[in-house]
Amino acid sequence: MSLLQPWQEKAAKKRTSLYDLIPQEWRLPKSIINNPPKNSTIVPSQCGILSKLDLEITEIDNIEELAHRIAQEKYSAVQVIEAYCKRAAIAHQLVNCLAEILFTQALERAQYLDDYFKSTGGKTIGPFHGIPISFKDQFNIKGIETAMAYIGYLGDIAENNSVLVDIVLSLGAVLYVKTALPQTVMLPETRSHLLGITLNPLNRELSCGGSSGGEGSLIAMKGSICGLGTDIGGSIRFPTALNGIYGLKPSDGRIPYGRARNSFDGQESVPSVIGPMTRSLSNIRLFFKSILETKPWLIDPQVHNIPWREDLFQEGQMNKLSFGVIQFDQKVHLSPPVQRAINMSINALEKAGHQVIQWDTIDHPEGIDILVKMYQADGGKDVQKALDLSGESIVPGAFVGKPETEISIYEYWQLNVARRDYAMKYLEKWNKTKEITSTGRPIDGIISPICGLPAYPHEYQISIEYTGIVNLLQLTSVILPITRVDLQLDQITDEYRNMKIASDLDKMAKETYKGPEVFENCIVGLQIICRRLEEEKAIGMAMVLEKALELYQ
Amino acid sequence: MSLLQPWQEKAAKKRTSLYDLIPQEWRLPKSIINNPPKNSTIVPSQCGILSKLDLEITEIDNIEELAHRIAQEKYSAVQVIEAYCKRAAIAHQLVNCLAEILFTQALERAQYLDDYFKSTGGKTIGPFHGIPISFKDQFNIKGIETAMAYIGYLGDIAENNSVLVDIVLSLGAVLYVKTALPQTVMLPETRSHLLGITLNPLNRELSCGGSSGGEGSLIAMKGSICGLGTDIGGSIRFPTALNGIYGLKPSDGRIPYGRARNSFDGQESVPSVIGPMTRSLSNIRLFFKSILETKPWLIDPQVHNIPWREDLFQEGQMNKLSFGVIQFDQKVHLSPPVQRAINMSINALEKAGHQVIQWDTIDHPEGIDILVKMYQADGGKDVQKALDLSGESIVPGAFVGKPETEISIYEYWQLNVARRDYAMKYLEKWNKTKEITSTGRPIDGIISPICGLPAYPHEYQISIEYTGIVNLLQLTSVILPITRVDLQLDQITDEYRNMKIASDLDKMAKETYKGPEVFENCIVGLQIICRRLEEEKAIGMAMVLEKALELYQ
């Protein structure tokens, strides 16, 4: 007789069947599996599974470059997808980042693209011809399960593609994996009874973040060049920052969410948004621009008809920009490496002729309070219904309501009013900065940490003051890696040691930052926040920061 | 001892103090007051209160023309506002359309504008320099009461202007009145214990519509050249159509709602929107374009940063357009004059080379069901709180919830999901029309009635199937007058007489349409519906229809 609960058995079966989809010849040797290095990213080039060509292909960070090489027949689409399937398989064995494996379908699709290319005398289907695109397991792919890390959703086969899946296919992309997410989708790490825990490829003792952690870790392993995550409180930004990659959290209404699934479906006060997670800023630009060029508002009623605005992108690259900077969210102080990343950014921007002024966050806790009440307004009923399907228990730490947090519709409407009034005050604060900038304009954007720590251990509770305001106000944010944790430079300073503890979360963060050794190999990511619906400008400004950092170093 | 309830006394006092603000010399003679003509619009030119100049000024329908004459010093701003104050005062005495009278402030403001003009050697403040703009009493004007037709809100003095009030002032406008609306703001007529009933200027035995009925009737009286209403189920469109004027119901996020008041404040599933009601399509274009040119998204966080798009406006004026047409909403059949307006529109458009195809509304009742559940989700608590402030009773017929209609947050979220799925299906239906249009594109827009009758009596319950879907899906709609009820042409036909009754509402409508005599002097208005956020195109298409009708007649 099995000692497992029926739901545990179902989960185990799912994990096994997923694993079984990895061909034998792509399986890592027991020596690595049993004794993996702390830094998983070194394995792909050393394990012998990837050919020289596979490595060459998967080391290209730039989508345009890879697409160019396919269009120039340097690589076939089949070669590219084979390389990525292999590398994704290796990644999964090391960090447990996948939710669905579609290697067979991917090879068929790549073959179709190669045939199309040949039969048309060298035509590509679109800018993503032959480019592998990974999707968090909230997206529907016709004929494939969308379990969304709920055991109760196993067997839920999608009848249609999500709108965004259709769009990337229309542009020539190849689907090959869906990636792991946490149960409830409301957790800043990637953990579920169904899929287990996803590890951070840079340092497996740490979390890969969440909820889009499968994407983050897969991309850091270079098992994907571009994937799609979602963000309702930081779910793109945590894993983007923690895995040292690039990402965009747009405002609601730009990237189509149609026919994608979610927890709290129908909760529209703080809309979840979809954004690309990838390996360069130019990829973000290309992806976002390419999606908009298909006019997604014609097929998804929730998308605004706002095309790519080149002028706004250029506005983000002006010679003299003015940045606000957040150095403390009122809850958790910055650990030395994050503080150093902020300092580097300030210095680099000032050296490049831009201005940086302090951004006051005294009102952030008030905003987060509204946000959390919105998350929890249903008293956790939505999640409970999903759990009840299988009988599984909830993972601890999820931002999910309990019976006592349920409120009435009237109270919910008052929360919306509170959010709207808060947004108005926040915008007034933003506009008022024109009195102190040297440009005469209000600040163009804000540089902000994602988190006080460069990364965090598994089952760690984080503050969302650095990320949540962006969701509450539907601002736009671009995340980029700034610097790697340095064993010398990031020692605990007297200032950090003697800092007044601001909250329980601050206490925990300080206890966790025992020194840079704990965060060895981690990369600190920061975000550039712009006004609502100013995605193009945020991308432009992130490019300015990246360039300034290059020149500064 | 008074036989009145305290709230009745307060209301009476308010009405009296409002009336007292009308100067003696602008008071209509008792002969008219005691025996007003059915058609109030004939009074202003006959009553002797308006000078020849006053009449000349107020008969100009075009904002641009009026602004031009002010800028050319043909009229001073003071002359213009005096003329409009007088005419608004006359209108109020006839149809009871005002909620606040600001004549003194208006004259001061006009004097300021004239002084500015002189002192700057002929500079105007903006495109609305000296133009009177009226506002429904949901808008805040600093220092003025915003009672919103609730007795309990009397004494609620606004501390700040609504965002849109600030914007029109920045463009040079003059505020002079706020207009009547129904208690609850959820009634398709304009009736409250506070302000009484507003009558239809074209035929005082009929309703002026609602909830923006004060605007509609004031503008029909030419007591305003342009006013602002709001629409959550038809509240701009009913009074626009019933008063024979022009209006725009935009999608959410284009015209700033910041610091305006509302019933159900915070109810965001079906957002109420603001739109201009006015006396020509070119005024709608000018108003909308002028507001957008101030970049309202920089000061109101709910506004999308979408500028005026001239290309989309031009797209609405293409040589060959394809229109869907709605002739039955599944609930109420079209009465003869409305059917004739539809037929005229179809014939005129086809003669002008455009295509018109039938638009299926089989799914409209399903959408309206979702919409009404959303309105009533709070069980009427919001309105009850407003009523409780004074003890007044609710006006019958309001689309307001009762305790038994209250739902949980979880159920509310499911309603949002239902609306989103409905929107997706509706859009698919729209896109599928490209298979049957001769343009090869999906239909460009839809011609639709506002109501089965050309107007309706007071305290009449109407169907919102013709209007509500536009709100549920946040589509855009431009309303224009098509034809006047004709005592010969609009006799009851055998077809109308023998039509199968579709619903109780249909039965009531048929009983109400006793013949064209009942609707003497009424004008039938129709709406052009375009996709979400396609305001510019809808304006362009309405112009096409108006031009086609001119050529056709």
UniProtKB/TrEMBL annotation, chains A, B:
GO MF term list: amidase activity
Domain Amidase: 80-537
Keywords from the UniProt entry: Hydrolase
Top-level lineage group: Eukaryota
PROSITE patterns: AMIDASES (PS00571)
Catalytic residues (UniProt): K136 (charge relay system), S211 (charge relay system), S235 (acyl-ester intermediate)
InterPro entries xrefs: Amidase_CS, Amidase_dom, AS_sf
Enzyme Commission number: 3.5.1.4
Keyword Chloroplast: no
Keyword Chloroplast: no
Catalytic reaction annotation: a monocarboxylic acid amide + H2O = a monocarboxylate + NH4(+)
First-level EC class: hydrolase
PANTHER family: AMIDASE (EUROFUNG), AMIDASE-RELATED-RELATED
Family: Belongs to the amidase family.
Protein name: amidase
Organism of origin: Rotaria sordida
